[in-house]
Amino acid sequence: MADPGSSGGAGATRVAIIMDGNGRWAAERGLPVLEGHRRGSEAMKQTVKDAAALGIRELTVYAFSTENWSRPADEVAGLMEMFAELIASETPELDAEGVRMRFVGRRSGVSPALLERMEWAEATTAGNDTMTLFVAFNYGGRAEILDAAERYRGGGEQRFAELLYAPEMSDPDLVIRTSGEQRLSNFLLWQSAYSELHFSDRLWPDFRRADLEAALQEYASRRRRFGARE
Ligand code: IPE
Ligand code: IPE
Ligand code: MG
Question: What Å distances lie between residue 63 and 109, 139, 180, 204, CA to CA?
Answer without folding.
Answer: 15, 8, 17, 12
